[in-house]
């Protein structure tokens, strides 16, 4: 029963974020709509996906471990950064090129 309650709460919050994001975009002039932004600190991107944006969300070694989802709401795990860090810290890896 607890899992069901938590899941329902999560879905309600997610629905609220999506509704707020769409409302924000529809209140703008048509020319000013970007269909991307943040609601309550949560990123959203409702633009049609492109290979470049999907790659940046999932494979960007120079970015953080989590990146804004493209398309969608929330964050994605940046697999490129994880692979970069594993290789950097592996025996024989290049530890001289530390990134902040």
Short recap of the structure:
The chain has 100 residues and is α+β, with helices and mostly antiparallel strands. It has helices spanning 2-27, 51-58, 79-89, and strands spanning 36-39, 42-45, 66-68, 72-73, 75-77.
Alpha plus pi helix count = 3
Largest sheet strand order: 1-2-4
State the total count of DSSP E strands.
5
Contiguous uncertain segments of 5+ residues: none
The Rg value, from CA coordinates, equals 18 Å
Give helix % range.
Answer: 40-55%
Instruction: Report the sheet-strand fraction.
Output: 15-25%
Give the overall shape: flat
Tell me about the largest β-sheet. 3 strands, antiparallel
What does this structure look like?
It is a single chain. This protein is of the alpha+beta class. Helix content is 45%, strand content 16%. The chain has three helices and five strands, in the order αββαβββα. It has a three-stranded antiparallel β-sheet with strand order 1-2-4, with helices on one face. It has a two-stranded antiparallel sheet with strand order 3-5. The protein is flat. The protein starts with a helix and ends in an 11-residue tail after the last helix. The model has no long low-confidence stretch (mean pLDDT 89).
């Amino acid at each position: 029963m607890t899992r069901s309650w938590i899941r329902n709460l999560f879905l309600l919050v997610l629905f609220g974020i999506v509704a707020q994001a769409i409302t924000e975009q529809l209140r703008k002039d048509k020319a000013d709509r970007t269909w991307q932004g943040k609601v309550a600190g949560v990123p959203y991107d409702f633009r049609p996906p492109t290979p470049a944006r999907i790659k940046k969300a999932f494979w960007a070694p120079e970015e953080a471990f989590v990146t804004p989802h493209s398309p969608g709401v929330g964050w994605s795990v940046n697999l490129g950064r994880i692979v970069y860090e594993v290789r950097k810290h592996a025996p024989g890896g290049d530890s001289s090129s530390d990134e902040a």
